[in-house]
Structure formats: C-alpha cells, structure tokens
Write a structure and sequence with these properties.
Layout (H helix, E strand, L loop, with lengths): L11 H4 L2 H4 L1 H11 L4 E2 H8 L3 H13 L3 E8 L2 E8 L1 H22 L1
Antiparallel strand pairs: 1-3, 2-3
C-alpha cells in the first residue's frame, strides 16, 4: 500500500482555512452557499444540530466576517436570518478550489 505521491502539492494543506474546514461549519457554509438566506430554524433542521451547538458555530463564522446575521421579529417571535457575506462566499470558493486542487493532484 506504499503509494508514491508525485504531483501533490501538500503545502496546500497549510493554506486551508481551518474555520471553514471544521465539519459543522463546512456543512453550514455549504448550505448557505446555494441559497440567498435562511432562517435559523431551517438551518438547525437541515444540519440536525442543537440550538446551542449551531449558535456557537454561527458566532465563529460571524466573528470572521463570513456570515451576516439579521435579527428581527415576526409578530412577537424573534427571527434570525443568516446569509453568507461576500467574504464568506469567497472563503468558501477558495476552500473548495484548494480541496479540488489537492484531490486533482492525488489523481494525476
């Protein structure tokens, strides 16, 4: 099972955005990348995460400037809407391109 890696540029691994690479945040960003915006409850249901767990990951992405979080009220109920910021979209594209290049290098 000793396989020679010829063309893989493993230095790309050092460039991966670890904030995006974490599995839960990658799932959140992947979902938000394909839509304009979603509400918190929808995202919680799609990811099957608890309120607190999802909230913690959203806070990290918001602090990095990757998410825009808008809090409003619908009647008397609070509503939190989330969307990727321009910076978040770029970070996700960069991450995807880096991973694509790594996988391509391993397959060449």
């Amino acid at each position: 099972m000793n396989r020679e890696v010829k063309n893989a540029d493993l230095s790309l691994l050092a460039e991966i955005d670890r904030l995006v690479h974490e599995p839960v945040r990658l799932m959140v960003m992947s979902l938000l990348y394909v839509v304009d915006s979603v509400d918190f409850t929808f995202l919680m249901n799609q990811t099957d995460l608890t309120w607190g767990n999802l909230s913690g990951h959203i806070s990290k992405l918001e602090e990095a400037g990757y998410l825009e979080v808008k809090k409003t009220f619908k009647g008397k109920r609070p509503k939190t809407t989330l969307k990727l910021s321009f910076r978040g979209r770029q970070a996700f594209r960069d991450y995807a391109n880096t991973m694509k290049q790594l996988f391509q290098d391993f397959n060449d």
